[in-house]
Write a structure and sequence with these properties.
With 482 residues, the protein is mainly alpha-helical. The protein contains 21 helices and six strands.
Length: 482
């Protein structure tokens, strides 16, 4: 018994360490539930039935089906240092968690902790007072112990402990010491998880207003701007769902591990709640401004995006086609919002241009993967596909240029342009930009999303400005700044 060991050790007071949210920034059980749910409909149904029987049963079944990989968890260095100090003093260090004992034992072995663990089993969910009772059974009714926790459920443990530390929740009027600096505010963390820097992509909603020449009408610009806002909100809603599903892959990535969910700064329940709020606001706003048509296409975008997050992301080549389609739907939504019928040429050009950028995004992920085979196994690619992805992406970009050239040469398609011959000039800056960004990606000079890179790259901005000027000149029949 542990209390006999403690009595024999004299002053060796044991240190009990909570795991979820304390030792690691992750919630092991919730992440396991997500991985089980995304593996298929049958697995999702099984998870619902497990939860109906109780959280402890669900944790036990998920731990058997989806064992945690302790090497991939986001540990808090401050807690690891406290554990190391306790071990150096010869004190017992026991992991005490509400997660299942199978997973906690794996973590203990990974950290080279030889003491027994206390954790949830099939018939008991070890949290709060249940955890305190389990600790009392180990150290004895009057035995001293220290405890490290993170939330309100740990209040009874801090009260009973000789010395307590917290990594997050700070009880008022207590002697519990904060072990690490306070985290960023929840609003700031939520905003970062929404990825507002990605909202610039939704400027595509304005394309129909530009190509139709209606951008000079304030009412059209207002409706287009509102549609872009609603598009941004529902896109952020999907980003949150995607980050929940991609926690493991993001942690294995060289840069994505800093995302709030992968890093453990934002909990899964908070992310789900925020996602539902953003989606609801977007659809309600779309109904008020653009009617059922705009709301319907926003829902179509959301449905395809969720299907991509759950399954289509792992379909080789199909994932790139879906990404290109999602970009094109943004343009379609812009047309629906202002009541403009889109040109076949515009849609075809958009599909091939964004297919090239989708391949470029996948190429960058494959290039930057910390463990390519592990990361890309969930994407449908292996390391040897890198050159094929690059050649496919460049080819798709050149097809987009060809579509643009054919459009400029088609009399009926370009009939409403005052100077349609100028449209052919659009091909030159586009060829330059596509080849340049692919070459830069090949050299490792493009990081993350290529669209986000282009919005910050001076030459890309200059190319975009030049193409806009050429297009306006073709539309008006005169230089736009004359």
């Amino acid at each position: 018994m542990l209390h006999e060991r403690v009595q024999a050790a004299g002053e060796a007071v044991p240190l009990f360490v909570d795991v979820d949210g304390t030792l690691t920034r992750a919630d092991i059980s919730l992440e396991s539930f997500v991985r089980v749910a995304r593996s298929g409909f049958a697995a999702l149904l099984a998870l619902i039935l497990w939860l109906a029987r109780g959280r402890s049963v669900a944790k036990a079944m998920a731990a058997r089906r989806d064992p945690v990989d302790p090497a991939r968890l986001p540990y808090r260095q401050e807690v690891l240092d406290l554990i190391a100090a306790a071990k150096a003093e010869g004190r017992p260090v026991i992991l005490a968690s509400a997660s299942h004992w199978r997973n906690i034992r794996r973590i203990a072995r990974h950290l080279d902790l030889s003491d027994p663990v206390i954790a949830t089993r099939a018939r008991s969910n070890l949290k709060g007072r249940a955890k305190l009772a389990a600790i009392r059974r180990l150290v004895g009714p009057d035995g001293a112990f220290d405890y490290v926790g993170d939330c309100r459920a740990d209040l009874c443990l801090w009260s009973a402990a000789r010395e307590g530390w917290t990594v997050r929740h700070q009880p008022r009027g207590s002697a519990v010491r904060r072990l690490c600096p306070p985290a960023a505010g929840p609003l700031r963390t939520m905003l970062r998880a929404m990825r507002p820097h990605q909202w610039a992509k939704n400027a595509l909603v304005f394309v129909p207003a530009l190509t139709s020449g209606l951008f000079v009408q304030p009412s059209v610009l207002f409706v287009a701007a509102a549609a872009a806002l609603f598009m941004s909100l529902i896109a952020s809603s999907i980003y949150l769902v995607n980050d929940i599903l991609d926690v493991d892959a993001d942690r294995a990535h060289r840069t994505k591990y800093k995302r709030p969910l992968a890093h453990g700064d934002l909990s899964i329940p908070a992310a789900l709640g925020l996602s539902l709020l953003l989606a609801g606001t977007s659809i309600a706003g779309a109904l008020l401004v653009g009617g059922t048509g705009l709301a319907f296409w926003l829902l179509v975008y959301a449905g395809i995006s969720i299907a991509y997050s759950f399954r289509l992301k792992a379909v080789m080549v199909g994932d790139a086609i879906v990404l290109a389609s999602l970009y094109t739907i943004r343009i379609w939504i812009g047309g629906v919002a202002i009541g403009v019928e889109l040109s076949f040429w515009l849609l075809l050009f958009s599909v091939f241009l964004f297919l090239s950028l989708a391949y470029l995004k996948r190429y960058i992920e494959m290039r930057d993967a910390a463990d390519p085979h592990r990361l890309l196994s969930g994407r449908g690619y292996v390391g040897g596909d890198l050159d094929v992805v690059m050649s496919s992406g460049i080819s798709a970009g050149m097809v987009a240029v060809l579509v643009l050239a054919l459009f400029a040469h088609e009399p009926e398609a370009a009939a409403h342009y005052a100077a349609p011959e100028l449209l052919m000039l659009l091909c030159l800056p586009l060829i330059y930009w596509l080849n340049r960004i692919w070459m830069m990606a090949r050299r490792g000079q493009v990081e993350g999303d290529p669209v986000a890179f282009a919005l910050k790259d001076r030459r890309s901005i200059a190319v975009g400005a030049a193409m806009t000027a050429i297009f306006v000149a073709a539309l008006q029949g005169t230089a736009p700044f004359a």
